[in-house]
């Protein structure tokens, strides 16, 4: 390189560097160098391919083709060597490969998992890497996680979970050109160490309980299942886990009750209802329920009948002390998970198919689970109460890790 050319090259590098431009993209300073390195590497691969055995059958070089590749360093054109018999399979830039590096694919999948649309992702990649990527290519890249989604859906579960919560989210999905409303059921579990885990997600055409029959995968026992009052769900749970204790969500029950109470009566009705669900014991709660019937049964018989019909499963939490009551009397735990998922999915009008929905919720779930690094608050006390209640159904190992953390000053290998 002549001195004048070197000076011009250095000026170009400095100008582009100071302006924050990608030095490797098309028409950028380092693009010819990167192009030269890639093409030399491909030529070396071709030379290795055309060994004596290939040449003995008449194979040899057959000119070069052109390819535009996209990478985290921008978009640029390269020349690719070809052989007469088309048996050359390059490793550096494979045939039909348009994305050069997996790290760019990972960035795209990461942005998609944060809820960004294909249009926004395309604009972001263009701005950051000076690379144009079509919506079709973006879809192909995000489709790479489909095997991960399926593997995750079919992964083995632990044999026992202390508590599980079930609740549904509702989305619009395109089916044969029409928009359908579908329920996405998420199951959140707490293992014996007190850590949260999403056990599965299932799409249903409507709110039905049949999906529950798919929840097995090595799971043999559930101590407490907390659900809304979905028709048939309790029977479905007990058909698979007959020893499970089912606690219906008090909050769902209250919401459903208020739908049938006149607005002018709701404040007073709720004051009386609190004597039921906030009672100190089941006996006190049942006295409150009798009082509720005497006062409101004539005016709101449907509401009172609903509490009476479901009372056995609404009142399971009275068997426990306050810390466990707060955990199981409502499905707030899984609803909190849903609020985080909706931050990601709220920008989507309708998903193109079921897998498009599952892909995004799966990625959101993996991001959310990264924050679940500690057991539930005071789990060491809660799990001992559960052990007193359920005995050997909780296979506790009595060491420091049994309760989610090592006590201060005690190594994790020390036995309690």
From TrEMBL:
Gene Ontology biological process terms from the UniProt entry: DNA transposition
Which UniProt keyword terms apply here?
DNA recombination, DNA-binding, Transposable element, Transposition
Q: Which InterPro entries match?
A: Transposase_mutator
Q: What NCBIfam families is this protein classified in?
A: transpos_IS256
**Which molecular function GO terms apply here?**
DNA binding; transposase activity
Q: Does the keyword Repeat apply?
A: no
Top-level taxon of origin: Bacteria
Tell me the protein family, please.
Answer: Belongs to the transposase mutator family.
Q: Does the keyword DNA-binding apply?
A: yes
| Function recorded in the entry | Required for the transposition of the insertion element.
Name this polypeptide is given: Mutator family transposase
Against Pfam families, the record matches this protein to: Transposase_mut
């Amino acid at each position: 390189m002549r001195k004048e050319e070197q000076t011009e090259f250095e000026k170009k590098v400095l100008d582009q560097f100071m302006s924050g431009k990608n030095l490797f993209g098309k028409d950028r300073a380092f693009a010819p160098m990167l192009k030269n390195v890639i093409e030399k590497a491909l030529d070396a691969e071709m030379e290795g391919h055309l060994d004596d055995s290939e040449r003995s059958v008449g194979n040899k070089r057959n000119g070069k083709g052109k390819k535009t590749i996209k990478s985290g360093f921008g978009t640029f054109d390269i020349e690719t060597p070809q052989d007469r018999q088309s048996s050359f399979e390059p490793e550096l830039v494979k045939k039909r490969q348009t994305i050069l590096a997996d790290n760019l694919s990972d960035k795209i999948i990461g942005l998609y998992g944060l809820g960004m649309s294909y249009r926004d992702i395309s604009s972001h990649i263009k701005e950051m890497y000076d690379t144009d990527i079509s919506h079709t290519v973006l879809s192909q890249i995000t489709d790479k996680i489909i095997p991960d989604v399926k593997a995750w859906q079919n992964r083995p579960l632990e044999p026992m979970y202390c508590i599980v919560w079930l609740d549904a989210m509702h989305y619009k999905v395109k089916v044969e050109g029409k928009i359908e409303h579908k329920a996405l059921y998420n199951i959140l579990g707490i293992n014996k160490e007190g850590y949260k885990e999403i056990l599965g997600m299932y799409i249903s055409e409507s709110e039905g309980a049949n999906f529950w029959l798919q929840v097995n995968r090595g799971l043999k026992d559930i101590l407490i299942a907390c659900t809304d009052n979905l028709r048939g769900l309790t029977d479905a749970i007990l058909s698979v886990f007959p020893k499970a204790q089912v606690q219906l969500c008090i909050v769902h029950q209250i919401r459903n009750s208020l739908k049938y109470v006149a607005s002018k009566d709701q404040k007073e009705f709720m004051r009386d209802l609190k004597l039921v669900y906030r009672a100190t014991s089941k006996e006190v709660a049942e006295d409150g329920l009798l009082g509720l019937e005497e006062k409101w049964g004539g005016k709101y018989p449907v509401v009172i009948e609903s509490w009476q019909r479901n009372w056995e499963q609404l009142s399971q939490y009275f068997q426990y002390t306050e810390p466990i009551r707060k955990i199981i009397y409502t499905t707030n735990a899984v609803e909190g998970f849903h609020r985080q998922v909706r931050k990601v999915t709220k920008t989507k009008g309708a998903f193109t198919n079921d897998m498009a929905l599952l892909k995004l919720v799966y990625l959101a779930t993996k991001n959310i689970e990264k924050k679940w690094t500690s057991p539930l608050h005071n789990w060491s006390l809660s799990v001992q109460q559960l052990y007193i209640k359920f005995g050997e159904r909780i296979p506790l190992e009595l060491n420091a890790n049994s309760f989610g953390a090592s006590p201060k000053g005690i190594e994790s290998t020390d036995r309690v």
